[in-house]
Amino acid sequence: MAILSKSEHRSLFVELLGWFENKDRLFIAMEYFEQGDLRKHLDKPLGEEVVQKITKQVLNGLQVMHGNNIAHRCIKPEDIFVVSMSPVWVKLGDFGISKHVHGDTALRSQVYTECYAAPEVLDLDPNGESSVYTNAVDIWALGCVVYELLTAEKLFGSLIQIMGYCYMETFPEQKLGRVTTPTSDAVKSFIRHLVVLNSNGRPSAAEAADDIWLEYVRDYPEPSRFNVPLAEIHEPRGDQS
Questions:
Q1: Is residue 82 situated within a structural domain?
Q2: Residue 80 to residue 41: CA distance in whole angstroms
Q3: At CA 229, angle to CA 223 and CA 232, rounded to 5?
Q4: Residue at 118 is within a domain
Q5: Rounded to an integer, what distance in angstroms lies between the CA atom of residue 124 and that of residue 167?
Q6: Quick check: pTM over 0.85?
Q7: Where is 145: in which H helix or E strand?
Q8: Which of 198, 204, 200 is nearest to 65 (CA)?
Q9: Which among 70, 158, 176, 208 could bridge 65 via Cys, Cβ 3.0 to 4.6 Å?
Q10: Number of domains within the chain
Q11: Which helix (H) or strand (E) holds 84?
Q12: Dihedral of alpha carbons 202, 207, 212, 213, sign
């Protein structure tokens, strides 16, 4: 994951600080987040503006990953870490089952978190012709996360519910009735667009970031608003010894 460790991406991804190993284990030191991950903040629905900013920042990270042929494969609130909620700044992390696709490699393994799993990972895609899937699984998962951030409830509470959507091929519209925001029509359309059964029908991360629901959201957090010098975010750290 050296690509994600580049200095220009440090505002998007959890920072790897170092590692060491003994004869039994590998230990990895990662950036610490005092405010934890998004799960810690989901005791109630988040405001729409907050969710818009989180979504745009996650999509910025996915654009970098997908642009380098890397699929995250485990997008969920627990893997989105909070630098600050006011102003909003989050980072993508937990790349344990991420995969860099190159050469003859492909995405085939059924690795997923139950409530965020795309149909093709579960071999439920009615249009699927093989066990190979694409980074569109991250887009599906993000759609599920956006719904959860806005309602504090899961869009699909179990694999049975995902299977029901796949076999009936009918989106659970009744659940979208719980999304009550100033731009509810726009965000409902956004969620439907991401959680499409046919993976080929989902937008890319770049296309999703250009959706009308995110039209007026800044691309990146402003480091100056965190009292952090810009150089500390976008330049490699020097020798601290």
A1: yes
A2: 11
A3: 95
A4: yes
A5: 8
A6: no
A7: helix 136-151
A8: 204
A9: 70
A10: 1
A11: strand 80-85
A12: positive
